[in-house]
């Protein structure tokens, strides 16, 4: 029997007495494109931090390809085949796109191959360039790239490292509609050959590109299923629309959005559905990007407070 690529069991993380993750189970099979969603503070980034060795769990286990990741260092986990992006971009601005990809690719290469003089572009870099379609920008310094292009470069840098599991933390936050679409297509392409976990907030994006979704809420898995199942689940609707405290980012969605006129898709055919087609605001820095340029800001308060004037 083949084992799952990633098996998270009863995982807990405690920060100063606060349970950021509380008994999380997550199984991701080889070849899956799994979306991980949930309100701000749900523990999504923390989960990725534990998988990648950045944060130590208080309990539970993480197995990748059947091997326990407990106690392993970050670089060791990268070498085992787990790659991630961060909510903030980490490209080298003064290096070109090609150099960034090449550097990333060399990270997993054994020393003997680094010492060998290489001609041209390695297969890994060529593949990353192909997947991300960054050819035209190959010789531009990363510093001049648009926000979207930087994100694609980062994804390309991950691919160049040849990971078997990619963890992407809010890749479309702050992107324009066109950039989101490109990213969605990129993810679909990448998922053909990789297993991918994507943290995302934008419900419209989810509806278009996701199949399997895991919803985290207050450190626990709330629901898991297809996009339609998750969207229809009353518990998810409660979490996204029914919160009364302002710790949750505004869910600009469904009825609230339609009434208040915020959100990109407000008034569209689906605007009245639960967790509708509006932009569901992401948290913190990333989420504000999601919201920018929409009339959704002020609506947020209403949505979070559960009232529409
Ligand atoms: N290093 C840390 N120290 C203390 N608390 C943290 C730390 N990292 C995250 N938290 C807290 O853990 C909770 C989950 O955070 P996070 O995983 O970033 O949520 P998400 O990515 O779902 O928005 C939040 O309440 C956050 O404030
Ligand atoms: Mg996060």
UniProtKB/TrEMBL annotation:
<keyword id="KW-0067">ATP-binding</keyword>
<dbReference type="Pfam" id="PF12399">
    <property type="entry name" value="BCA_ABC_TP_C"/>
</dbReference>
<dbReference type="Pfam" id="PF00005">
    <property type="entry name" value="ABC_tran"/>
</dbReference>
<dbReference type="GO" id="GO:0005886">
    <property type="term" value="C:plasma membrane"/>
</dbReference>
<dbReference type="InterPro" id="IPR027417">
    <property type="entry name" value="P-loop_NTPase"/>
</dbReference>
<dbReference type="InterPro" id="IPR017781">
    <property type="entry name" value="ABC_transptr_urea_ATP-bd_UrtD"/>
</dbReference>
<dbReference type="InterPro" id="IPR003593">
    <property type="entry name" value="AAA+_ATPase"/>
</dbReference>
<dbReference type="GO" id="GO:0016887">
    <property type="term" value="F:ATP hydrolysis activity"/>
</dbReference>
<dbReference type="InterPro" id="IPR051120">
    <property type="entry name" value="ABC_AA/LPS_Transport"/>
</dbReference>
<protein>
    <submittedName>
        <fullName>ABC transporter ATP-binding protein</fullName>
    </submittedName>
</protein>
<feature type="domain" description="ABC transporter">
    <location>
        <begin position="6"/>
        <end position="243"/>
    </location>
</feature>
<keyword id="KW-0547">Nucleotide-binding</keyword>
<keyword id="KW-0813">Transport</keyword>
<dbReference type="GO" id="GO:0005524">
    <property type="term" value="F:ATP binding"/>
</dbReference>
<dbReference type="InterPro" id="IPR032823">
    <property type="entry name" value="BCA_ABC_TP_C"/>
</dbReference>
<dbReference type="InterPro" id="IPR003439">
    <property type="entry name" value="ABC_transporter-like_ATP-bd"/>
</dbReference>
